[in-house]
């Protein structure tokens, strides 16, 4: 007998969407769940006349629909996990998921951060050539930054979010060879005009991480990091750029521990050291003694007098610098100054240094502490003994030009 069209249709539907085999008990639970969910949805959309009309918080139809779908999908009967289809989001690349989220308008700062973190995890499991190829192919930093600009989040709002997000975007951009995008981002980022908060502005945070990343990328030479910094502290400008203090401090610490320097490094270092007055916080900035140490290292002939002036300024009463913490920096500064004077200093400079040490020694024996005496306890006497053994006869030094 020729099968009827109804029978054929049922067979076709069965092949496309096989029926889930349910026990009578499961069928009843499933029916009750659907009935309850649909009744709730109808009550919300079409309330009965006896329902109170008092104002209440209502949701949009889209939200109600999402809640309805969620209530069905989270039912225990649907908790069985079957084989994943090849087109599921779990099998898709993190950057493809990001692109889809951007395209359908559902992307958020959290989405972007999660996708970039997942992509980074994939890179960790790849070989170096595979990492370079993946970054070149997907361009995660570029795509993330484009979305930030398009949604007016790049200048300030992203910096109120998890700092790992902007740091991740900067890191990927630099690995993509997009330093220009990072530089333009820094220039456009917000900067608070008040001195106290300028160091913690979005521009300050971006520049600081940019410089830190360059220090790590080029460990054998600090010239790239110095060049990146000096882009925002140009020698031909005179205005204050306190937002650069954090980035500058990182460079100072890196230079202090650096062993040797190329001629290119040396020229960049001298420009950097000369720029310090424009981004230092105050005359009592703790980085001041480190800057002086670096000048004694890279330009000793012309830096002894300024270092002596700094040592004299450190004889300020301790209470005037109560909030400033120099730590061992003062001791290291005095040792550097002592070594430089002994090598190339004049008799007058040696006498001036001894005079500073004598004052600090006297203050150590009284309650009239100074910043110098408080932070240089123990080293003053040793340096004085060392200078007492030296014969500083008048000498004429040839100062290089």
Structure notes:
The chain is an all-alpha fold. It has three domains: 98 residues; 92 residues; 119 residues. The chain is built from 21 helices and no strands. Helix 16 runs antiparallel to helix 17. The longest helix has 22 residues. The radius of gyration is 34 Å and the shape is elongated.
Q: Taking all residues together, what is the mean pLDDT?
A: 77
> What's the SSE pattern?
HHHHHHHHHHHHHHHHHHHHH
Roughly what percent helix? 55-70%
Structural class: mainly alpha
Number of helices: 21
How would you sum up the global shape?
A: elongated
- Main sheet, how many strands, which sense, barrel? none
Report the uncertain regions.
Answer: 49-66, 76-89, 319-323, 396-401
- What portion of residues belong to β-strands? under 5%
Number of strands: 0
The separation of the N and C termini measures 112 Å
Radius of gyration: 34 Å
Number of domains: 3
